[in-house]
Amino acid sequence: MIQACPQPPLPAWIRFSALRCFAALFVFALGLFGCGTSGTPDQKLATDLGYDLYQYLTSRASAEHISALSLTVSFRGSASDINVSTGTTQYAGGAAVTPSSLFQTGSNTKAFTAVAILQLEQAGLLSIDDTVGKWLPQYPAWSNVTIKQLLNMTSTIPTYDLTQQWINDYDANPLVESTPEQLVNYVYPSIGTPGKAWIYSNTGYMLCQMIVDKASPSNSYETDLDNIIANNNLQNTFYQPYFYPQSVTSRLVSGYYVNTDPPVLTNLLGADTSLYSLGWAQAAGGMVSTPQDLTLWVRDLFGGNVLQPKQLQELESLVSTQTAQPITGTSSSDPTGFGLGVYQVTTSNLGTFWYYQGSTIGYRATYMYFPNNGLILCVFTNSQTSAEQNQISADLFPKLIATLKADGRD
Prior knowledge:
Elements: E1 26-30, H1 43-64, E2 68-74, E3 82-90, E4 93-96, E5 103-104, H2 109-122, H3 132-135, H4 147-152, H5 164-172, H6 180-184, H7 202-215, H8 221-231, E6 238-239, H9 246-249, E7 256-257, E8 287-289, H10 291-302, H11 309-315, E9 318-320, E10 326-327, E11 336-338, E12 343-347, E13 351-360, E14 363-370, E15 375-381, E16 383-384, H12 392-406
Parallel strand pairs: 7-16
Antiparallel strand pairs: 1-3, 2-3, 2-15, 3-4, 5-8, 6-8, 9-10, 9-11, 11-12, 12-13, 13-14, 14-15
Helix pairs in contact: 1-12, 2-7, 2-8, 2-11
């Protein structure tokens, strides 16, 4: 599976794993945040969280082919975050990873794309109820699909990155600079019945990129995304459609493709993919960042600092991933909902929270945001694995949360 973000493996989230301990490189950086009323750094909590990363890395390094983990923990109202990292920038080598090291963020890019669309709606330049036919008439088979359906994954347009032809083409040339139009053409004119099924589709976000190119005064998705990044003071977040400059790649942790879920990019198995083209992902998953920047973005986005109230409500308007029908919120019987580039999840042990695990061909970037207490956890690592081996959400996040609870941070 090559999708920029698969649906989260919910049933496994209640599990904890027994972690073995081996030698590993562990470094951490502390932000100053409030601890009671003292205002002093809580180094013990940061050390305990860092040890959780250390244990996970040493127990899972081989199985997941990872060499690095980077974590940010943010508390509502605190002066700054806890930033912890462990491991090295290359598998079995490299320099120590630090909290300022960069990773590809995968489908966390989708929320930025949704914001680009919603800000155009705020400006009166489009509506999310507009159709593909209005903005992209060159795709008549999809003319009745709405922008909202593209964003919430109910368009029923297939995702191009699961087609055998795309697999063959990228496997043969991972430096290819595919255009959005070329990616869309892998699946055009295929479609089901819009609104009747929830199907994860990167194609919808490519179409949204093309709509931004057409509807925005800049006529450039890249320009609009750069403006969103700058306006939200994300100093360690970057977007390029294909290749990043050396100033970015010198900070980028090596990422490894070890995903054996079909269809498989056979030629790339085990490869460091960090310098390959991200043209296959673009608006669906092409950004790079740090956990701290993604945490800042998540807090500002859900806190109402990015969108006006109407558009934030639209972003958070959910459809069930089981039925594709609108729901007011997730529940134990319908645990996963998708908004406009964001997931909401409900589990028996963690309650209701916003979540995303974005992945590319070499990286995973995951956050959980708990609106009731304002806690945000964000973890990045440097491989794309099979679904069976992908244990970040199932094993590491519960351990981190248990450590926070033991410290009275629940």
